[in-house]
């Protein structure tokens, strides 16, 4: 009876997985390898190599790497600061960084539009201080800024969770043996935080490669990423679900490969330990 009850409880979850994960994935793969007449073709998958699609794809990779690097540089010191303070205060401070994740994604991006517009909050502040206006709206930098803001919590939290698991006795023992702050950071803290860093990189880089909403809202159509190409393939007046499915599948395979590479290096770092 207990096993039957567990199976019944798992039933809705399995049905959800089947309808909203397995079936769409099967349809995506089928459309990716078929033409409009139903014949088999590799042209849809190979379309990622076309210069028309290749430039937005390379631009997306470059932007994703830059966003991931900025998030990592900002998140690691921030996570160290969060770890330094008491756990009671920490929980409140961490909640502040989680709050943006509770807000609607579109509202956060629209808020950045109000800030970065030529007559927005940022330029009003600059002109009131006697400085000239900056034109960030509808540029790559606006897209990068909005993407960093949206994905920064996804880098901070995994690193923070890895840092709080480091035993303070290990750090105290290293200090007793004469290790300085730089040595402790290099030999203990960074190696033990590698799993959190890898998780953060994966959680930021993977979704930012296929980002298109922020590019549309902050880039104003002037910043064209691979996500915009796929979105237009499905939704434009000349929609081609086969071409869109092929590009989506190619991007999915590349993302899976990058995740495997990250996990491989994560495993090597985990085996090496500290010192």
Which characteristics define this entry?
single chain; 275 residues; mainly alpha; MetI-like fold
CATH fold annotation: MetI-like fold
Radius of gyration: 23 Å
Low-confidence sequence ranges: 271-275
- How would you characterize the largest beta sheet? none
What is the CATH homology-level superfamily? MetI-like
Estimated share of beta-strand residues = under 5%
Helical stretch tally: 12
Series of H and E elements: HHHHHHHHHHHH
The count of β-strands is 0
* CATH-scheme architecture: Orthogonal Bundle
Terminal-residue CA separation: 52 Å
Structural class: mainly alpha
Helix content: over 70%
CATH class: Mainly Alpha
Shape type: globular
What is the averaged pLDDT score? 84
What is the total domain count?
Answer: 1
How would you characterize the overall build of this protein?
Helix 1 (2-32) crosses helix 12, helix 3 runs antiparallel to helix 9 and helix 3 packs across helix 11 (226-235). This protein has 275 residues and is mainly alpha-helical. It has 12 helices and no strands. It has one domain: Orthogonal Bundle (MetI-like fold).
Write the layout of secondary structure elements.
Layout: H1 2-32, H2 43-46, H3 51-84, H4 87-102, H5 105-116, H6 121-128, H7 140-164, H8 168-176, H9 181-209, H10 213-219, H11 226-235, H12 241-272
Helix pairs in contact: 1-12, 3-7, 3-9, 3-11, 4-7, 5-10, 7-9, 7-10, 8-9, 9-12, 11-12
Provide a short characterization of the protein structure.
The protein has 275 residues and is an all-alpha fold.
């Amino acid at each position: 009876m207990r096993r039957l009850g567990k199976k019944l409880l798992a039933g809705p979850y399995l049905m959800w997985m089947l309808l909203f994960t397995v079936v769409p994935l099967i349809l995506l793969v089928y459309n990716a390898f078929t033409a409009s007449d139903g014949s088999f073709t590799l042209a849809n998958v190979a379309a990622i190599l076309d210069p028309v699609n290749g430039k937005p794809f390379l631009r997306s990779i470059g932007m994703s790497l830059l966003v991931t690097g900025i998030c990592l540089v900002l998140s690691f010191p921030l996570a160290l600061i969060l770890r330094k303070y008491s756990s009671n205060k920490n929980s409140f401070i961490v909640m502040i960084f989680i709050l943006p994740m509770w807000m609607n994604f579109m509202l956060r991006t629209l808020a950045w539009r109000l800030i970065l517009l030529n007559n927005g909050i940022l330029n009003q502040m600059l002109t009131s201080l006697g400085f000239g206006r900056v034109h960030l709206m509808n540029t790559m930098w606006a897209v990068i800024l909005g993407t960093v803001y949206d994905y920064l919590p996804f880098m901070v939290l995994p690193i923070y969770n890895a840092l709080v698991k480091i035993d303070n006795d290990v750090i105290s023992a290293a200090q007793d043996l004469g290790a300085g702050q730089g040595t402790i950071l290099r030999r203990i803290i960074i190696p033990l935080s590698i799993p959190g860093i890898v998780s953060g990189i994966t959680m930021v880089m993977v979704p930012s490669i296929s980002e298109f909403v922020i590019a549309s809202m902050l880039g104003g159509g002037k910043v064209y990423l691979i996500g915009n190409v796929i979105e237009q393939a499905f939704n434009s007046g000349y929609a081609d679900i086969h071409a869109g499915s092929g590009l989506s599948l190619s991007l999915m395979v590349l993302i899976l490969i990058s995740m495997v590479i990250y996990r491989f290096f994560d495993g090597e770092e985990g085996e090496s330990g500290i010192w």
